[in-house]
Write a structure and sequence with these properties.
Blueprint (H helix, E strand, L loop, with lengths): L11 H5 L7 H11 L5 H5 L1 E2 L5 E2 L10 H4 L22 E6 L4 H14 L3 E5 L13 H8 L9 E4 L4 H11 L12 E5 L1 H8 L6 H18 L4 E6 L1 H6 L3 H21 L4 H5 L2 E7 L3 H21 L10 E6 L11 H15 L4 E3 L12 H17 L13 H23 L3 H7 L1 H18 L46 H17 L4 E6 L3 H16 L4 E3 L7 H11 L3 E5 L2 H17 L4 E5 L6 H7 L3 E3 L5 H11 L4
Parallel strand pairs: 3-4, 3-10, 4-5, 5-6, 6-7, 7-8, 8-9, 9-10, 11-12, 11-13, 13-14, 14-15
Antiparallel strand pairs: 1-2
Length: 639
């Protein structure tokens, strides 16, 4: 409204013109005042695992000019391959891992009746569990009643992919589905299988030639089939960063395009047969940027091959990350899966598969499968996330992150190509070394508290979480000569879960739960911050805490400790009360029989005096929690 109260014909631009445009220097001056002269870079700038800067604020001046005019459905397809919303936005593609064809069929039909419109059928093969399929008849039995012309089926067979693909194509006539209308994803990915298991059923080049020959044969039989798959999740699950996952995706695509070309299949025709899969995890913005950058990367490779427009037909799916799942308090996995699914949706995935929340524990029951399915249904049919094309597009932050991730991935892909391509890079160990280094850096960030795992390293739940599952079936062994070092998957929670397992074993053996007495000094308001922190910190290692509202004096705390029958105690309070009572409390606890006296917080200049008084160890944020908790377990008699 203007000063005269007349709003007719007045735009926001007109109103804003009365104000002088703010400059970045003015903003930085205000920021410096707010952070009281602290280092701007350390205080407000963060970096992704790939070293990409995350600024505290993004403006039009820092946006990506080339992306400002990009539109959905047009090259470079960063904003998606469709110019209009397709149906409800994406395909709900759910995983079926039943052990036999009959049970798999029941689960497939249940999934389709329950709201899924696509299936990932996992097939038993060396190194992985799944449905036992030995013939086309077995495949037909597993897929009986499924409308493959309406609900696509993806075969995930790993080292058994060639046999499973041939069996599926052979089974089509018996399913009553016209092969020319069947929507199937055969999952032929010998490079991904080589990376994951380190071997193949035949020599690498022979396997590639056989794969392309099978792909051509299958495509002639079922022209809608996506025969070859570029599965970048293999690298993610082993620990790769977002950019390196994309780099491996790009390098694998180049290898397959070269093999197709050697078989006289033009890049434009080959692209129509290839599907792509990336992982989605709890970093929503990184997931969004990764999917957007993946399309841009694929288009650039296609364009360099003379088939840029063919990239409009690319099919990019997302699979929720297995490495993000936790075995302890697995209910938190539902939150992780929701975030990962939302990121995949907002990034424009064509199909999404969400793992059951108990996937890290064992076999999924009906409830676990239903919750995985319903996460997608709620986001699709209640939240309507699929009703808008590229909803994150235009955000200066997302556009900048997408651009930097694509550039970083391209540079890494060039490095792989410089090694002779993805197969040579695997043979030389370059890929494995890079992924291992990425995984180690992430593990360190989690152990030191720079990254938190809810329910694992932060706010862990001690005791029974109420989840009971049937243990996973044993996978057939991987045999044959190891051709390259395999990329074994690792879950982020594993180091802390090992600590919890050791504590449980101690309890089962002794009948006693490991506990530490908290000598919390003063009123609640004084000690609650450190008492709460240390309780959660110890629980991450399976160690319980004996807590109260607090003690008024060292003698009172020592008396309570003696009555508790505990052997270890931790002093908790504010710095002010530490100055008055910490040394006396440590002495009193030692005199009352404490074999181990801990203290929450850094000791500062008083470290020598506190140690002399009886403090054995100081616990504080920023130290390696896994190593610290393992040491504490040893001191408490937990092996």
């Amino acid at each position: 409204m203007t000063a005269a109260g007349n709003t007719q014909g007045v735009s926001a631009t007109t109103l804003a013109s009365d104000f002088e445009a703010a400059t970045r220097d003015q903003w930085l001056a205000l920021v410096d005042k707010a952070i009281k002269g602290a280092d701007f870079e350390k205080k407000l700038v963060t970096r992704t695992a790939d070293g990409i800067r995350i600024e505290p604020i993004y403006t039009r001046e820092t946006s990506v000019p080339a992306l400002q005019t990009a539109t959905p459905g047009h090259a470079p397809f960063t904003r998606g391959t469709h110019a209009a919303v397709q149906g409800l936005g994406w395909e709900i593609r759910q995983r079926v891992n039943a052990g036999d064809a009959e049970q798999a069929n029941r689960e497939i039909l249940s999934e389709l009746e329950g709201g899924s419109n696509g299936i990932v059928l996992e097939i038993e093969a060396p190194g992985q569990t799944g449905c036992r399929v030995r013939s086309a008849a077995d495949m037909a039995a597993a897929l009986a009643g499924a409308r493959l012309d309406l609900a696509p089926v993806e075969i995930k067979a790993g080292l058994g992919a060639a046999d499973a693909a041939a069996q599926l194509i052979s089974a089509l006539p018996g399913l009553g589905i016209r092969a020319k209308s069947a929507q199937v994803f055969l999952g032929l990915d010998p490079i991904g299988s080589l990376a994951r298991w380190g071997t193949l059923p035949s020599p690498v080049q022979q396997a590639l030639v056989e794969t392309i020959a099978l792909a051509r044969e299958a495509h002639d039989e079922a022209p809608l089939a996506r025969t070859v798959k570029v599965d970048a999740t293999v690298y993610h699950e082993a620990g790769a960063t977002e950019a390196f996952e994309l780099a491996a995706l790009g390098a694998t695509l180049i290898a397959y395009l070269r093999m197709f070309e050697a078989a006289d299949v033009a890049p434009a025709d080959a692209l129509g047969q290839i599907s792509f899969t990336v992982s989605s995890d709890t970093d929503l913005f990184a997931t969004v940027a990764k999917l957007r950058a993946a399309r841009r990367l694929i288009w650039r490779i296609a364009d360099a091959s003379g088939a840029g427009e063919a990239a409009a037909s690319l099919h990019l799916s997302a699979s929720s990350s297995f490495r993000m799942l936790a075995r302890r308090d697995p209910w938190t996995n539902m939150l992780r899966s929701t975030l990962s699914c939302a990121g995949a949706v907002l990034g424009g995935a064509d199909a999404i598969a969400v793992l059951p929340f108990t996937a890290a524990l064992g076999e999924a029951d009906d409830f676990a499968r239903r919750t995985a399915r319903n996460i997608q249904i709620v986001l699709q049919e209640e939240s309507w996330l699929g009703r808008v094309l590229d909803p994150m597009g235009g955000s200066w932050y997302i556009e900048a992150l997408t651009n930097e991730m694509a550039k970083t991935a391209w540079a890494l892909m060039q490095e792989i190509e410089g090694k002779g391509g993805i197969i040579s890079a695997l043979d030389q160990g370059f890929v494995q070394d890079k992924v291992a280094a990425d995984a180690a850096a992430r593990a360190k960030a989690i152990a030191t508290g720079r990254a938190a795992l809810t329910g694992v390293s932060a706010f862990p739940l001690l005791g029974d979480d109420g989840v009971k599952v049937k243990p996973s079936r044993a996978a057939p062994p991987v045999t044959g000569e190891q051709m390259v070092r395999p990329l074994a998957p690792h879950r982020l929670a594993e180091p802390f879960e090992a600590l919890r397992d050791a504590a449980d074993a101690f309890t089962a053996k002794t009948g006693q739960e490991p506990r530490v007495f908290l000598a919390s000094l003063g009123p609640v308001i004084e000690h609650t911050a450190r008492s709460t922190w240390i309780k959660n910190y110890l629980a991450a290692g399976g160690i319980g805490s004996l807590t109260t509202d607090g003690y008024a004096s060292a003698d009172e705390a020592a008396a309570a400790f003696k009555a508790s029958c505990a052997t270890a105690a931790c002093i908790c309070s504010s710095d002010a009360l530490y100055a008055e009572h910490a040394e006396a409390t440590a002495q009193a606890l030692k005199q009352s029989g404490a074999k181990l006296v801990l203290m929450a917080g850094r000791p500062g200049e008083r470290e020598a005096a506190l140690k002399a008084a009886g403090v054995d160890q100081f616990l504080f944020a920023g130290a390696d929690a896994v190593a610290t908790l393992k040491g504490l377990q040893e001191k408490l008699g937990i092996s």
